[in-house]
Structure formats: structure tokens, C-alpha cells
């Protein structure tokens, strides 16, 4: 595509958007396996949980049916206790292509389906509802909502009951990977208590496909492996596992609240009672405000359930609650987003960590780089709370970054340089979703079934 207009910061014209849309569609088609979409053909060759939710939000603009199938594939790997695993392993992919693979996790809901044993942020009900809205007639014909609703209700019940480790109405994460923001500085304190597995005892495959400076360190990985192995060796039983790492994460719980609101709409559409879901959403928001809101920094902070207090690190996880409708501290969050810590409107997209923080690194994974899925959630929050001009500027920034970086996994917030994998699925999906909010006034590419 022609990207000169995008890179100069002006609004892309219709031809630019059509070209970018076609390129994004090619990424998703290229990452499709026949039943789901891999984040990256090289770096992440399986199905990831919250990736699939964001992918479905983009796919709905190409093929609502395929978006439904994306989510159904993930829901089909649900465990009996209700959890949705963070990875569903592709049986056709060689065992050694990704670490830790299925032989490490030794997990799955039933024979023939192999998964990890941990979870990721619960954005799924929100995605299901938005996919339904893209083509209600097709969804109704396929029974999409009727089949998804009980699975989503069980997923939320698992988080509400088995994962309320603090006893105050918030779901806890028991591994940094569960946050989706793997090596955020927010986890440095809790992770310091974990005895790492020596690098000689595992083989990282991520470094075969990405620069070491873009990825978590060997020390980080050693701790990730230790935590995962302990959870596995306790049968993934939340009641009996030691949980050396147990954290209440604002983004995880904000997405649970957002998805409870979506589940209320789904319940009403299938003839169930929506009121319990609305009440639970309100309860989660109240607990977020009570447990994780820090007025002095104008941000939600993480709470370390083993260390006994709020974690004084300012990660983008604390901005994600902006996406929740009616949030009473939205104006404070907006001021923080636009301030020195996150520089909204002055940097590329939304940095994953405090620009002024001591651990800020513009290239290393979640320690500073800007991510497209998080940018989209902040964009939704800006629209929800009346900051339309800032939302439009963020949208332009995200489209520029995607065009310039060839749909990179994430970008340097200071330079816009792409890092990690290229041709990344949720980056392409986010582009499709953003373009759909302001579509070009020309004929577009055809639908893909």
C-alpha cells in the first residue's frame, strides 16, 4: 500500500485504507489453520485464548461465520471446571515448535485436545456479543449465542469462585502469562520470591524467531517455568496449589466486568435472566475501585496477595478499566493517560509501562512497547467516555504504526519501530476493526467464508 500519507500523520485517504484493509485481511487468511487463527506462524504456532477474542473482533468484518468459528474453537477446549486455557495446541504442529509445549503442561479437557493449564484475560463474552452483532441472522441460524452462553457463564463462574483468592470479589492471576502482559514491571516484585529454573533445564524456542532484546530474559523465563510446573504438579487445583505468585490485576478484572455486561446482553438474547450478570459487573467494578484504585497516581494498580499491598508500578493494565462504561474515575484515568507517564497523543499508540519509570524499556516486550490490542481497548474507553478527538488521534496512530511495521506484534512508543513478530494476527484484526469504525467510501474486498 501507499503509506506516505499515513506516516506524515494526516488522515489516510480511502485508497490507503482499502490497501491497508486488504493487507490486514491477507495476514488473517495466512494465519488461519482451518479452525482457528495462530498469532504468528513462527513465534506462536498454536491458538491463544485472548488472541482469538481480538482476532474474532477483526474477522467479523471479513466473515462473521469465520469469526464465530474462531471463538467456538476456543470454547470447545473448555475444561470441566469452566476455565478456558490460554493455549490450545495444534496437533499438526511439531511438539518442539513451541516451549512450553503440550508435553510440559500435560493438560487438556478430554483425550485428543491438549492445552495449557493456565488462563488469560476474559474478553471472550465481549467478543462473542460483538461477533453476533455483525450478522445476527447467521448467528441465529447457527445457534451461536445459545451454544456459547452456558460456556461463557461457566468461565465467569470459575473466575468468580475458584480464582477469588483474596476473598474480595476480584479474580486473581497465578502466573504472569495469565495477565497477557507477561514481563510487565508490575510483576517484578512478586516474581522476586520465585526460585528460577536454570536456563540449562529448558530450551526457549522464542529466541529462534525474535531478537533477545525484544523478549523476556532467561531469569524471567526460569521463574515462569517454575510457577507453571508447581501449578501443574498440584493438578491445576486452585485450592491446593501454593501460588507463590497471586495478584489482583486491574485489566484482567476490568475485562471481566466488560464481559459480564456483554453476557447480560447474550443472556437476554437467548431467553435467560440478564440481571445476575449486570449485578456481577457492578460488583467487580466496585471491588476494582475499593481494592485497586490509587487516587494519588490517578491509576489502577495491581495488588500482590502474597506481599500484602498495592504494587507501586504504573503499567498500562491500570488504564484498561477506561473501557468499562460508566466508570466513575474515567476523567482521572484520562488525565493520567495524557500525562507524563503514558504520553497519549505524543507517542506512538499507548506504551505498556510508565515512560518515566525506572524499568521502562521501549523494545522489550511488555516493559514499555505499545501493543495494538491494548491500544484498541483504550480507544474504546476514550469513545465510551466522550474523548472522541483523542480516540481519533489514537486510531490514526495505530493505523500508521501497523502500516509502517508490517503488522508488527508491538512497536517502540518513542520511534514507532516494530518489534517481535510481523504479520501478527491481532494487529491485523485491530486494523480491520478500526477501519470499520470509519470505513473508506469505496468498494471493499469480498467476504471470505
From TrEMBL:
Residues 44-427 form the Mannosylglycerate hydrolase MGH1-like glycoside hydrolase domain. It comes from the Bacteria. SUPFAM superfamilies: Six-hairpin glycosidases. GO terms for molecular function: Glc3Man9GlcNAc2 oligosaccharide glucosidase activity. The keyword Heme does not apply. Pfam families: MGH1-like_GH (PF22422). Gene3D superfamilies: 1.50.10.10. GO terms for biological process: oligosaccharide metabolic process; protein N-linked glycosylation. InterPro entries: 6-hairpin_glycosidase_sf (IPR008928), 6hp_glycosidase-like_sf (IPR012341), Glycoside_hydrolase_63 (IPR004888), MGH1-like_GH (IPR054491). The keyword Hydrolase applies. Keywords: Glycosidase, Hydrolase. Belongs to the glycosyl hydrolase 63 family. This is Mannosylglycerate hydrolase MGH1-like glycoside hydrolase domain-containing protein. It comes from Actinomadura rubrobrunea.
Amino acid at each position: 500500500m501507499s503509506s506516505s500519507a499515513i506516516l506524515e500523520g494526516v488522515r489516510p485517504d480511502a485508497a490507503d485504507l482499502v490497501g491497508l484493509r486488504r493487507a490486514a485481511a491477507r495476514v488473517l487468511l495466512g494465519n488461519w489453520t482451518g479452525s482457528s487463527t495462530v498469532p504468528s506462524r513462527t513465534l506462536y504456532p498454536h491458538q491463544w485464548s485472548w488472541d482469538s477474542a481480538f482476532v474474532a473482533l477483526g474477522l467479523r468484518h471479513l466473515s462473521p461465520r469465520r469469526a464465530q468459528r474462531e471463538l467456538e474453537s476456543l470454547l470447545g477446549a473448555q475444561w470441566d471446571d469452566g476455565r478456558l486455557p490460554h493455549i490450545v495446541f495444534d496437533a499438526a504442529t511439531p511438539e518442539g515448535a513451541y516451549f512450553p509445549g503440550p508435553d510440559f503442561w500435560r493438560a487438556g479437557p478430554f483425550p485428543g485436545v491438549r492445552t495449557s493449564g493456565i488462563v488469560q484475560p476474559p474478553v471472550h463474552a465481549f467478543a462473542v456479543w460483538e461477533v453476533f452483532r455483525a450478522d445476527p441472522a447467521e448467528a441465529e441460524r447457527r445457534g451461536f449465542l445459545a451454544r456459547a452462553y452456558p460456556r461463557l457463564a461457566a468461565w465467569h463462574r470459575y473466575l468468580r469462585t475458584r480464582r477469588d483468592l483474596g476473598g474480595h470479589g476480584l479474580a486473581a492471576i497465578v502466573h504472569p502469562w495469565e495477565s497477557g502482559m507477561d514481563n510487565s514491571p508490575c510483576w517484578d516484585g512478586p516474581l522476586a520470591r520465585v526460585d528460577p529454573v536454570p536456563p540449562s533445564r529448558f530450551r526457549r524456542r522464542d529466541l529462534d524467531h525474535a531478537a533477545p532484546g525484544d523478549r523476556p530474559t532467561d531469569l524471567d523465563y526460569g521463574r515462569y517455568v517454575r510457577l507453571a510446573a508447581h501449578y501443574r504438579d498440584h493438578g491445576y487445583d486452585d485450592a491446593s496449589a501454593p501460588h507463590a505468585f497471586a495478584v489482583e490485576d486491574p485489566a484482567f478484572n476490568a475485562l471481566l466486568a466488560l464481559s459480564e455486561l456483554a453476557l447480560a446482553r447474550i443472556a437476554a438474547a437467548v431467553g435467560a435472566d440478564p440481571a445476575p450478570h449486570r449485578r456481577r459487573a457492578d460488583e467487580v467494578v466496585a471491588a476494582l475501585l475499593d481494592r485497586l484504585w490509587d487516587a494519588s497516581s490517578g491509576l489502577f494498580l495491581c495488588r500482590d496477595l502474597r506481599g500484602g499491598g498495592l504494587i507501586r508500578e504504573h503499567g498500562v493494565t491500570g488504564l484498561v478499566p477506561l473501557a468499562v462504561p460508566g466508570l466513575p474515575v474515567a476523567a482521572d484515568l484520562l488525565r493520567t493517560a495524557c500525562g507524563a507517564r503514558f504520553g497519549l497523543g505524543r507517542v506512538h499508540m499507548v506504551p505498556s509501562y510508565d515512560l518515566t519509570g525506572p524499568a521502562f524499556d521501549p523494545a522489550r516486550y511488555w516493559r514499555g512497547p505499545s501493543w495494538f490490542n491494548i491500544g484498541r481497548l483504550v480507544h474504546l474507553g476514550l469513545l465510551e467516555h466522550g474523548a472522541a478527538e483523542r480516540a481519533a488521534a489514537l486510531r490514526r496512530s495505530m493505523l500508521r504504526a501497523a502500516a509502517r511495521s508490517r503488522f508488527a506484534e508491538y512497536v517502540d512508543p518513542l520511534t514507532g519501530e516494530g518489534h517481535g513478530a510481523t504479520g501478527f494476527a491481532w494487529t491485523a484484526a485491530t486494523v480491520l476493526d478500526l477501519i470499520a469504525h470509519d470505513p473508506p467510501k469505496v468498494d471493499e474486498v469480498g467476504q471470505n467464508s
